[in-house]
Amino acid sequence: MKNVLLDSDVILDFFLDRExxxxxxxxxxSQIELKKLNGYLTAVIISNVYYLLRQVxxxxxxxxxxxxxMTLTDVLAIxxxxxxxxxxxxxxxxxxxxxxYACESYGKIDLILTRNTKDYKKSEISVMTPExxxxxxxxxxx
Length: 142
Known about the structure:
Shape: globular
Number of domains: 1
Number of strands: 5
Distance between the termini: 20 Å
Helix content: 40-55%
Number of helices: 7
CATH class: Alpha Beta
CATH topology: Rossmann fold
Largest sheet: 5 strands, parallel
């Protein structure tokens, strides 16, 4: 697995240092920084993260964090076709459908990392939590 989508909750766990989850997201982001993984986001994820971080921090601080994140990750496109697929899908959560179809459209995403794996039951892409990924890669529970 080389190309991973980081869902909003994964990024928030890291930035808000939500233990025990931030331990696993720190590992994943370090793997991206070391070029052992390629990290991807969507504009929806970035917008969600901005909105939620802005509740607890200033615009400037949030922008600094997002700029750091953007140096490590790439952004998948969401166009009209992806929106229409998401709108007409069997996904219960529209936002997750957008992420899923952005990944499918790109065609190179191996894994979606999220703590809400149940929301991706309809996905044809592998899905796991950061903790599951950490255990799989490191062979230990942290």
